[in-house]
Each structure stands twice: as C-alpha cells, then as structure tokens.
Amino acid sequence: MGKFINLTGQKFGKLIVKFFSHTDNRKQSYWTCECDCGNKTTVRGSELKNGTYISCKECGNKRGADKLRTTNRKYNIFEKKNEYYIGYTLKDEIFYFDADDFEKIKQFCWHKTKTGYVATNIRSVDGKKKTLKLHHLILNEKGIDHINGNKMDNRKSNLQICTQQKNIMKKFMQSNNTSGITGISWNKYRHYYHAYITINNKRINLGYFQYKDFKKAITCRLIAEKKYFGEFAPQQHLFNQYGIK
C-alpha cells in the first residue's frame, strides 16, 4: 500500500470528495463524494484517480458503463502547502509548483517523462498531438533551466531562463558524469572522488574522497542537498539508503 493521500476537497469529473469513508480488507481506501446533481456516492480512491468513476450512477457512470462522452481525462491529486502545491502523477510521483500557478495547471493531467520532466499531452490547433512541459507553461519560454537540478521542482524560484548553449553544456556534463551520482566526479589522474554542490550558479567544494570512500562522498553530497534544498533535494530518493533524515 502506497502513501495515504487525503482526497478531501478534490474534484474528479462531476464528483467532489467530501470525506474519507472506510478501508476494505485489501487496504483500499473509499471516499464519500457528492455529484454535481446533489447525489452522494462512495467510490474507491484508485478509481477516482484513474477516471473510472467521474459521476454518480444516476448520471450514467455505473460500473462497466462508458465514461462520460464529454471527457476521457484522468486527474492528478494536489495538496496545498502554504505558498506552493504538491502534485501527484497517476504513478504517485511528486512534483512542485507555486500556488499562483494552480488555476492554469489543474486543467491538465500531468505525468513524468522518460527524461524526468513533468509534462502533459495536448493537441495543437491543427489537431496534432504534442507534449507540453510544465516549466514551459509556467514561464511561457523554451530555454529554461532547473536551478537545483530537480526537474520535478517547478516553482518559479527554481526556474531560470538560459541560453540554448548553457543548456547543451549542462546536458553534456550530466551525460559524462563519471560516478553515476549528481555532484560527484571521479578524477582519473589523481584517483579521488570530488563532491560538490552548485548554489546560485556558484560551486561549493564538499571534499575529496578515496576510491574506497565512495559512499562517504555520496553521503556528503546528500547532506548538502538536505541543507540547501530541503524537501526539494534532487536526489532525495537516495536519502533512506544512505541514512539521511
């Protein structure tokens, strides 16, 4: 069972979630919802998120029936956190954006691309399907860099407009990473790992480590990420593995 996500107040099609109902013997969560027509119904959370149920029975959305013909969309879950939102893809991958961008973001269903960006699929004026990246929608620009390296962090404070040349240089450096960990490079001439972190375009040296101390180098880099980026750390998926709390 994944992380419990509070759906109260979220809207899926014609259904708005009023409160948590119960959990079944398979640990599936059920929610009591109110339809736009005023009727109440209880729906499993996973079926709300994947678009199986988007209205009450009286409005035509019975088990096995077709979805409403007016839409075939699926929906993200959003949580308000002071001045920003946490969004969840359909695979429960977390992304971030500013609260004042919520209205233009909520109308689309967002997913994580193979290259790690948050994106949605739209149709252009000529009817062709294309991909729209979240950071492009937010700044309405093409050449955009994620300052802390976390492509899921799309708060405007983490986005900066940069030249195509700078973006190419950054991608080249990432593709030639010699350690497999962001912020750690292997010096093949002096035979040590160099740990560092970049803050506001300035590189901070975190230390040099012998080959046998590779894990110490990783831990040092992750501690720095926790210090400078907090919950937006680009490699927070490694925190548990290396004991970062």
Written description of the protein model:
The protein is an alpha+beta fold and 245 residues long. It has three domains: 75 residues, no CATH class; 84 residues, Homing Intron 3 (I-Ppo) Encoded Endonuclease, Chain A, CATH 3.90.75; 62 residues, Single alpha-helices involved in coiled-coils or other helix-helix interfaces (Up-down Bundle). It is 18% helix and 31% strand. The strands form five sheets. Strands 1-2-3-4 form a four-stranded antiparallel β-sheet. A three-stranded antiparallel β-sheet has the order 5-6-7, with no helix packed on it. Strands 8-9-10 form a three-stranded antiparallel β-sheet. The longest helix is centred in the C-terminal third of the chain and has 16 residues. It is elongated. It starts with 10 loop residues before the first strand and ends in a 16-residue tail after the last helix. About 7% of the residues have low confidence.
